[in-house]
Design brief:
Elements: H1 13-21, H2 47-55
């Protein structure tokens, strides 16, 4: 399953991404600090997600 984090500039998307994926994406205190997409893998052990993956 793929999902994304979208939102207004300078609201903490990169910080949330870093917390969830344990990555070190640039998180700076100015708008448009992150221009290119960051990709991370987050393991979520939940059988319901397996069912959703099969549907989509």
């Amino acid at each position: 399953m793929k999902c994304g984090i979208v939102g207004l500039p300078n609201v903490g998307k990169s910080t949330l991404f870093n917390c969830l994926s344990r990555s070190k994406a640039l998180a700076a205190n100015y708008p448009f600090a992150t221009i290119d997409p960051n990709v991370g893998i987050i393991p979520v052990p939940d059988k319901r997600l397996d069912k959703l993956t099969k549907l989509f």
